[in-house]
Amino acid sequence: MVTGRALGTFGSIAANADLARRAPEIEVAPKLRVEKLDVHYGAFQAIKSASLDVPENRVTALIGPSGCGKSTFIRALNRMHDVTPGARVRGRVMLDGEDIYAPGVDPVSIRHRIGMVFQRPNPFPKAIYDNVVYGPRVHGMRDRAQLDAICERSLRRAALWNEVKNRLDRSALDLSGGQQQRLCIARCLAVDPEVLLMDEPASSLDPIATSKIEDLIAELKADFTVVIVTHSMQQAARISDFTAFFLSGSLIETGTTVSIFTQPKDKRTEDYITGRYG
Amino acid sequence: MDQPAQRRRRYAAVAATDRAFLVAVYAAVGLFVLLVALLFASLVHGSWPSLREFGFRFLWTSQWNPVTNQFGALPLIFGTLVSSFIAILLAGVVGVLAAAFLAEFAPRWLARPLSFIIELLAAVPSVVFGLWGLFVLAPAVRTSIGPFLQKTLGFLPIFGGPIYGVGLLTAGLVLALMILPTVTAISREVISAIARDQREAAMALGATKWETVAGVVLPAARVGIFGAIVLALGRALGETIATTMVIGNRPEIAASLFAPSYTLASVIANEFTEANGKIYVSALVELGLLLFLVSFVVNGFARILLYTALRRG
Fold first, then answer.
1. What span, in angstroms and rounded, lies between the C-alpha atoms of A33 and A54?
2. Residues B204 and B218: beta-carbon distance below 8 Å
3. Smallest CA–CA separation between B208 and chain A, in Å?
4. Which CATH number covers residue A238?
5. Whether A134 contacts chain B with CB within 8 A
6. Does the pLDDT at position A5 exceed 60?
7. Count of domains in chain A?
8. Fewer CB within 10 Å of terminal CB in chain B, N or C?
9. Which one of A75, A77, A108 makes the best mutation probe of the B interface by having the most chain B beta carbons within 10 Å?
10. Cα–Cα–Cα angle for A29, A35, A37, rounded to 5 degrees
11. Which whole-number Å values give the CA distances from B196 to A124, A259, B105, B169, in the listed order?
12. B-contacting residues in A 55-84 (Cβ below 8 Å)
């Protein structure tokens, strides 16, 4: 189990909660470093000066009640707010030490490196194959053999290959919701991103489909850095190594998932994980 | 009085009002259905002499001659279809591009007033378009647009022959302008209805704005866009006064788009006052019946397309 492994790594330190909280910075290099991020929608400030380190090849969960800003936060990590009318982002998001909001940085190339899976499965109304290779095609790949290889590899990584290998030319909309979501993950993996952002990827799925997605996330972190928004604390506890708790646009507390769930430092975190908030 | 009895009486009163309201609603809707049915029935009745006299020959003979009482609608069908087709071709391309711009690229401060102006264009009475077509566009076709087309593309028969100014091309251009708001406004709505998550999926995969629109949004909207164009086609087919003013009103089939022509609606508008004789009147009513059926089918088809497109989005 994932949490078990995190316990193994940090188990000895976890006794000292303070050390456990700082452990990520010591042990794992941050893939993404968010510094003093503010997001405004018009006059409304949705994120207030949030700073967070996202360690490489780990799963970082963002939790908090509805409307706390966790989705807004994750969308800032690959510049999806660029296309939201009225949204303004301030602060820095460092990807391998380089600010993705620096002037002259092309958001398209950033999204190439930081992929995103959304809350509702959103396959294109095209064939399964065309969905998976959409990204590589957009980036100029035309060679059929190469595209075939990418398609198979991505679908295998998304644990969907065996279910769809005989009907790649069928419409993606014929798949079940859980399969559609894994297809969206495969589509995302096909462009070979370094970071995978997932905004409540299982919230519209049934329990079996959800557990498949969770197993998949556990496997994906070997190759990718994963950031996942979830409204299910059980899910965060099951799959993540690190957890960040948001409340009313502020990042209240971050730490290893074990420490957040066993020894929260902040009263508000404790109230939330013990079920005294939404 | 005890409580339950009071409540029962109140419920009974409410139920009676509900029933009365229901009856009124059904009656209002039923009236529409009845009117359409009556309209159809009276058109069939009115065109009966002509239907009996000419049968299906009415549709594919080219003589429209009130003097000899020979009535064949083919030139009118031809003029209606060709002028509408020109309009659809031009308005379709321009309208869809404009809709894509308004829905996807224009900043909001620009998109709002532009959409407003385009919708105002739809409110201009068609006689005004006709007037403009006759006094501005027709001379322009005669002196510059026509000669230019003839010089560059004159080897095509559709751009051959003498240029009168009024004719199929001018009618098509005026119609294009008139249906442009329909194509643009409805296509914009259809494009906007394409779920945001589709756009975001493409953007998140590193597609540029243009790649997103061309590769994802427009293909997803194609059924609805087609519906918008068919709806506009319905308008063009039935347009009367503007076409009558600029098409030249000659019931002949010519290869050239510069040649004068005639449409179903124009014939009715021009000739109903002077129609004498049972067969003549009845032939005009049969043209009306034709237009009625064509508009009914075209509009119904468009509505079904738009319904599925907007519901899915």
1. 6
2. no
3. 6
4. 3.40.50.300
5. yes
6. no
7. 1
8. N
9. A108
10. 135
11. 12, 37, 14, 40
12. 78, 80, 83
d(CA A1, CA A61): 16
Interchain pair B205, A115: CB under 8 A:
yes
- Output DSSP code: residue B157: G
Residues of chain B contacting A111 with CB distance shorter than 8 Å: 203-206
Q: Tokens in use for B200?
A: 């975001």
Q: What is the phi/psi pair of residue A52, to 5°?
A: -155, 140
Indicate yes or no: CB of B202 within 8 angstroms of CB of A184: no
- The more confidently predicted of residues A3 and A97 is A97
Whether residue A209 is contained in a domain is answered as yes
* For chain B, the helix, strand and coil percentages under 3-state DSSP, each to the nearest 5: 80, 0, 20
* Average pLDDT of the segment spanning B278-293: 93
Which candidate, B227, B158, B142, B236, places its Cα nearest to that of B193? B227
**ipTM over 0.90 threshold:** no
Position A251 in a domain: yes
Instruction: Work out the minimum CA distance from A184 to partner chain B, whole angstroms.
Output: 8
Q: Write out chain A residues lying below 8 Å of B213, CB-based.
A: none
What does each C-alpha distance from A7 to A26, A39, A253 come to in angstroms? 16, 34, 19
Q: What is the pLDDT of residue A67?
A: 84
Longest Cα–Cα distance in chain B: 95
Do the beta carbons of residue B74 and residue B59 sit within 8 Å?
yes
Strand, coil or helix: B44:
helix
Alpha helices in B135-240 (DSSP H): 138-140, 146-153, 168-193, 196-204, 209-212, 218-238
Q: Span B73-312: which CATH code? A: 1.10.3720.10
Binary contact (A83, B215; C-beta < 8 A): no
- Asked whether residue A278 is assigned to any structural domain, the reply reads no
Q: Is A138 on the interface with B (CB under 8 A)?
A: yes
Residue of B nearest to A119 (CA): B197
Containing structural domain, residue A194: 4-273
**The pLDDT of residue A275:** 80
Query: How are beta strands A225-229 and A59-63 bridged, if at all?
Result: parallel
Q: How far is B303 from chain A (nearest CA, A)?
A: 22
* Closest Cα in chain B, distance from residue A258 (Å): 31
